[in-house]
Design a protein that fits this description.
alpha/beta, Aspartate Aminotransferase, domain 2, 4-stranded mixed sheet, 15 strands, 16% strand, binds ligand PLZ
């Protein structure tokens, strides 16, 4: 590291460590954020959303500091990305080192070790002991697209089965794979073909018998596949093992193993989209691990590289190798800086036992949220796994979605310095995705703000 970089780095990390405390010094948004937000409106596309109206100057672990100096508790991790915390030290160190070595060659022009090492690690940590291989790309959507391309090439079939409430990205193919119209698809068609959507066993809103939901859902789906598509035409079944944007919908026990078995029996590639549920989030390395489901292909992004743009497809070596040379690629896929960040991220998860920490965070979240649900009947359900938890808000005594209450609660929490994200096809879910390095004190402080929010509602 150059002397200048070293001095800068020391200043940032040692001397000005961000205290892990919520602290408001102005209203939210403060004057400097307001000023910068004016420039945002003037300079950036109106097609972009915004979750909290502040502009960030720094972030560390579970605290975001805005340009006015407000310290906000991060319960979103940039949508499940900074699982190892904002500016995690092993990520920062490796990134600095890599930037100084080289920034780009294009892996398909002149390969480098970082890419190979990330693939070796992914082949080791993903579910299953079978021989596996990997491909690195830039975003979750690009990884999903590649998984579908590979599955189609391998099976020489075209149909792709997806589910209600699914979110798989914003590119043309992944919009088609995504369930929700507004905001993701409206006016953006025509969409890619050969996509077939199946009912999702959403336990809270399942209309049939709760006791037989797994077998009823599997029967329904497999019958629909046989009748409407023909199993012999299906290249892939693509599913989020816990649905993210759709509202943290956890399928009932037995459903994923049953679906994976059906895929295997019919020569269909079973693809798990673990873009949101992956990388220690759910208290396992991957959500599929919970029921020992071994997908043929697993799609990863978000939590893989501590905030640098990286995504991956890992899976059965025979499937991954079925594509002709140069059939896969891209200029930036597996960029060396992003690979360095991924190695720092995975090292952090393993050395700091963040999988266990996700379970501890999950226990705190679950007991606090269940206690809130007892007091406030507006909370229809608490659900999730590990540090991926959510509450679904309804009108008390009914299951009618209450999106209005979600926005009031979120606004209150923001005004008090707590960043929370929404989710759900019906816009009535609040999700909790804290960095896995959040302290108990900080998490409990955020939850007390949430409680005040419900009490004031
Ligand atoms: N698959 C399961 O959750 C991204 C979307 C944010 P990209 N989810 C956050 C937004 O408003 O676009 C996601 C996901 C699952 C795929 C993706 C897509 O990942 O890296 O955003 O392309």
């Amino acid at each position: 590291m150059s002397t200048r970089a070293k001095a800068y780095y020391l200043r940032m990390t040692v001397e000005t460590t961000l205290v892990q405390e919520r602290r408001l010094v102005t209203a939210i948004p403060g004057p400097k954020s307001l000023e910068a937000l004016k420039r945002r409106t003037a300079a950036t596309s109106a097609g972009l959303g915004i979750a909290i109206p502040v502009v960030i100057a720094r972030a560390q672990d579970a605290i975001l500091q805005d340009v006015d100096g407000n310290c906000i508790i991060d319960l979103g991790s940039g949508i499940g990305v900074t699982n190892v915390g904002n500016s995690a030290s092993r990520v920062v160190d490796r990134v600095i080192e890599q930037v100084q070595s080289f920034t780009h060659t294009c892996f398909t022009v002149a390969p480098y070790l970082g890419y190979i090492e990330v693939c070796e690690v992914l082949n080791r940590i993903t579910p299953g002991d079978n021989p596996k291989k990997s491909l690195l790309v830039n975003s979750g959507a690009e990884a999903v697209e590649n998984a579908v391309k590979i599955a189609r090439h391998f099976t020489k079939r075209q149909a792709v089965v997806v589910f209600e409430h699914a979110f798989h990205g914003r590119t043309n193919l992944t919009m088609a794979l995504t369930a929700k119209n507004v905001p993701y698809k409206d006016g953006f068609g025509p969409f890619a073909g050969e996509i077939y959507r199946m009912p999702m066993p959403y336990p809270y809103r399942w209309v049939g018998d709760a006791a037989s939901i797994t077998s009823d859902a599997l029967d329904l789906i497999t019958q629909k596949i046989e009748k409407e598509i023909g199993a012999q035409n299906v290249a892939a079944i693509l599913i989020e093992p816990i649905q993210g944007e759709g509202g943290f919908i956890v399928p009932p026990k037995g459903f994923l193993p049953g679906l994976a078995d059906y895929a295997t029996q019919n020569g269909i590639v079973f693809i798990a989209d673990e873009v949101q549920s992956g990388f220690a989030r759910t208290g396992d390395f991957f959500a599929c691990d919970d029921e020992d489901v071994v997908p043929d292909l697993i799609v990863m992004a978000k939590g893989i590289a501590g905030g640098l743009p990286l995504a991956a497809v890992t899976g059965r070596a025979d499937i991954m190798d079925s594509v002709h040379a140069s059939g896969l690629g891209g200029t930036y896929g597996g960029n060396p800086i992003a690979c360095a960040a991924a190695l720092g991220t995975i090292e952090t998860i393993e050395e700091d036992n963040l999988v266990d920490r996700a379970n501890e965070i999950g226990a705190i979240l679950e007991s606090s949220l269940q206690a809130l649900a007892k007091r406030f009947p507006i909370i229809g359900e608490v659900r999730g796994r590990g540090a991926m938890q959510a509450i679904e808000l309804v009108y008390p005594g009914t299951k009618q979605p209450n999106a209005e209450a979600v926005s009031l609660i979120i606004q209150y929490c923001q005004s008090q310095g707590v960043l929370l994200l929404t989710a759900g096809t019906l816009n009535n879910v609040i999700r909790f995705l804290p960095p896995l390095v959040i302290t108990d004190e900080l998490l409990l402080d955020a939850l007390s703000v949430l409680e005040e929010g419900f009490a004031r509602l």
